[in-house]
User: What shape does this take?
Amino acid sequence: MGIKEDIKQNKAFRNDYQKVGVNILFTYNWLTEKLKQLVEPYDITMQQYNVLRILRGSHPEPLSTQEIRIRMIDKMSDVSRIVDRMIAKELVSKGLCPADKRLVDVQITQKGISLLNKLKKLELSMDNQLSALSAEEAAQLSLLLDKLRS
Assistant: This one.
């Protein structure tokens, strides 16, 4: 099925640029819903999952909330509030940055690492969601999306 059928559009797109824009937005929402369904049973949000992955990537070094915000996929997220909720779940800890007292350092806890280890099947599930593409097609699509943003 194509995007025109997926959104039940009767008229033709204005041009291929409009079609690809709508298709990217539709696919983003489709993929987002799939990811939400995967993380929901673990009582975390997609943004919390993103923060855990970011912090695991820097582990054992902490990151400031400012640095986390820069690395997040969803740039509109309120990192401070997300971190506070994750502290309540004991997934991360925070403290003052020794180099700059104005910054807060955030670090993943062992409980957060354990949760990510449980979520490894998410990565395989997401791969399966995208497996309609060959490895070469996935690489090409990634390059095209990078080109679009440059």
The chain has eight helices and three strands. Residues 3 and 23 are 6 Å apart (CA to CA).
